[in-house]
Amino acid sequence: MKQYNIMRKITAILVAALMCAPSMAQETKKSDDGYKFTIIKELPITSVKNQSKAGTCWDYAGTAFLEAELLRMGKGTYDLSEMYTAHCDYQDRAAAVIRCHGDMSFSQGGCFGDILHCMEKYGLVPEEQMRPGMMYRDSLSNHSELSAMTNPMVKAAAGTGSLQSDENYQLLCLKAIKAVHDVYLGVPPEKFTYKGKEYTPKSFYESTGLKADDYIQITAFLHEPLYKTFAVESPDNWRHDLSYNVTLDELIEIADRAIAQGYPVGWDSDVSEQGFRMGSKKGFAVLPVTDANNVSAQGSDMAHWIGMDAKAIQDEAAERPTPQRWVSPEERQLGWENHETNDDHLMLIYGTAKDQMGNEYYMVKNSWGDYNVYHGMFFCSKAFFRYKTVTIMIHKDALSKEMKKKLKID
Length: 410
Known about the structure:
This protein has 14 helices and 12 strands. It is an alpha+beta fold and 410 residues long. Strands 1, 4, 5, 6, 7, 8, 9, 10, 11 and 12 form a 10-stranded mixed sheet that branches. The longest helix is centred in the first third of the chain and has 31 residues.
């Protein structure tokens, strides 16, 4: 009888263990599921590049945008030279700083307007004509020493009362600055052959069918009138390029419509947010709700969230989808005004997706090489985009007729 009771107890324990097994397996699956994305729309893009030790994300993102536009236009795959554009832009910026007596910055940074100005003024060249790193036995950019050489030169020229010029009245300081860029980036070609045909940079640009005037920049801030243009106050917007100002909801609608209609979107954003840093290697950028009292409105399981502090929710967001924080226009404005949001990185948006929780995302091509699980691209939640976007660049035909009318665009 005693043996029977023992066996009965063992059997009961085994049955209980088996009954618990499914829930244990489900819990394990939950802890390991991570972020799962379902692609809704994906546009064709060229390969991911690596800006390496160059602070010219504007150049890499702008070039990626142009290459995606050429694919959209049915022009085929192009690999355009970032170094040619950087060389041209550095010269323009040095001249501007000197004219302003140093009352503006000379740096590697820039905005989408720089790529448009340079291709219209100087043209474009294929990558094979000016490759990154070719002047110092490398295949990646490294502008550290270049800047260490040119920054003092520009500063000295900007602070000099009377500048010397040559027999053609050209400033010697600008010729010297150009010579340094020639040494580190390469000499821009005056003519070259591409696929059996001879071009100048200007004629090559014209052959692509791209037109700088076709592209516009859009933003959404409260300190300027709606549906007018203004120069976003960023040190890297040194050309004072204008952006159209729309509502925050309209900014997202414009980006959504562009992707849905097949148009890529240039994205100027801030990547210093915790929601970007924690997901950088895992391929996502999010803006999680960190107030448990507000998550019920996001459609979450209330029982799961009640009692969790902000850090616990942030930690969970690093592992799997969580409800996203949908900021107000006022919150976004404050982030810009108090320098929590900065104009620090430009990228390319080329698609839309959803995670398993239903959160919506943009597919983003970065310029940091094969640095994460998605080989250089990542998924950015629309909540993050809503808060951290500085400007976007699109083809003006990506706008709806109604929006074109509001902005008075033909």
